[in-house]
Automatic annotation (TrEMBL):
Essential cofactor(s): Fe(2+)
CC cofactor note: Binds 1 Fe(2+) ion per subunit.
Listed Gene3D superfamilies: 3.30.420.40
Domain of life: Bacteria
Enzyme Commission number(s) of this protein: 2.3.1.234
Keywords: Acyltransferase, Cytoplasm, Iron, Metal-binding, Transferase, tRNA processing
Designated name of the protein: tRNA N6-adenosine threonylcarbamoyltransferase
Similarity field: Belongs to the KAE1 / TsaD family.
Function: Required for the formation of a threonylcarbamoyl group on adenosine at position 37 (t(6)A37) in tRNAs that read codons beginning with adenine. Is involved in the transfer of the threonylcarbamoyl moiety of threonylcarbamoyl-AMP (TC-AMP) to the N6 group of A37, together with TsaE and TsaB. TsaD likely plays a direct catalytic role in this reaction.
Source organism (scientific name): Shewanella electrodiphila
Enzyme class: transferase
Length: 337
């Protein structure tokens, strides 16, 4: 079975072709980063309009690179939610309509299920069950995963998502959008300078996160310290360490609770090197294994949507004819495969 995947939930147009025997045949990505940079964040209406411009050329490109004609495609998967409604509707409209006109089944994919399954695109894919730490710009959650669609959300952020905390803190430090990778780069030049950043919500039981206080703590630290490049790098490093440590503490707790020894880390923030190193070390100490998608599949992409869609289409799940987006969509309401 061969599936065309379409991702348009936020500021990346991602298109891919995935075949269950041959694997990933192509993937094309257009990032709108430059378009939104002047505004310091994603402008939803501009995002929707840019998806409209890019989606058809990228579909043509991905099909060509996959050496696939319409006849070779067995189904179309598009991100149905969660995300920005206008952006979602572009992918849903094009995906659903193409499927109708090509007489193929369509499936609406949950964006976070796409992230969660992204490590399956790698050669050393994890086996079920596992614990997943999903850390993106819109969500932070710990999920007990027993199979595709068998998800129990054990904890999530009560305020900012991890990526959002990176982005907002980066803005405070005068860094351009998207702040996460820029803050990480600045942090890599920082040295240990004795800052005592909090590890929010680690002193009480539970698996929820809260990151908005860290942002305020960073703002106060910046205001109290001299304004030079090295100091900013040191503060960035202390902030990054606090986020990474907090995530690691909660992962360890969730692993203990579930008894699982496989950890999957996905979503944009899983591209962060300090997080990857820290969790790799922790899993080694725990005699477990950690799985990440390759760098380009940590952030939004079409490959993860094609993969997730294929699993659901293979199980006979399909979308009806109505074009819908679902901006809010709890992960644990998905049907098991
Ligand atoms: O998964 P994603 O591409 O989009 C959403 O579904 O939200 O995640 C984007 C988020 C942004 O907040 C971005 O700043 C963050 O991931 N991010 C990073 C890094 N790369 C991307 N945060 C920290 N370190 C990075 N290297
Ligand atoms: Zn995402």
């Amino acid at each position: 079975m061969r599936v065309l995947g379409i991702e348009t939930s936020c500021d990346e147009t991602g298109i891919a072709v995935f075949d269950d025997e041959q694997g990933l045949l192509s993937h094309a990505l257009y990032s709108q980063v430059k378009l939104h940079a002047d505004y310091g964040g994603v402008v939803p209406e501009l995002a929707s309009r840019d998806h409209v411009r890019k989606i058809v050329p990228l579909i043509k490109q991905a099909l060509k690179e996959a050496n696939s004609s319409v006849d070779d495609i067995d189904g179309i998967a598009f991100t149905k939610g969660p995300g920005l409604i206008g952006a979602l509707l572009v992918g849903a409209c094009v995906g659903r309509s193409l499927a109708y006109s090509w007489d193929k089944p369509a499936i609406g994919v949950h964006h976070m299920e796409g992230h969660l399954l992204a490590p399956m695109l790698e050669d050393d894919a994890p086996e079920f069950p596992f614990l997943a730490l999903l850390v993106s710009g819109g969500h932070s959650m710990l999920v007990k995963v027993d199979g595709i669609g068998q998800y129990e959300v054990l904890g999530e952020s009560v305020d900012d998502a991890a990526g959002e905390a990176f982005d907002k803190t980066a803005k405070l430090m005068g860094l351009d959008y998207p702040g996460g990778p820029r803050l990480a780069k600045l942090a890599s030049k920082g040295v240990e300078a004795g800052y005592k950043f909090p590890r929010p919500m680690t002193d009480k039981p539970g698996l929820n996160f809260s990151f908005s206080g860290l942002k305020t703590f960073t703002a106060n630290t910046i205001a109290a310290e001299p304004d030079d490049e090295q100091t900013r790098a040191n503060i960035a490093r202390a902030f990054e360490e606090a986020v990474v440590d907090t995530l690691a503490i909660k992962c360890k707790r969730a692993l203990k609770l579930t008894g699982y020894n496989r950890l999957v880390v996905a979503g944009g923030v899983s591209a962060n090197s300090r997080l990857r190193e820290n969790l790799a070390e922790m899993m080694q100490q725990l005699n477990g294994e950690v799985f990440y998608p390759r760098g380009e599949f940590c952030t939004d992409n079409g490959a993860m949507i094609a993969y997730a869609g294929l699993q659901r289409l293979k199980a006979g799940q399909t979308e009806d004819l109505e074009v819908k987006g679902q901006p809010r969509w709890p992960l644990d309401t998905l049907e098991a495969v």
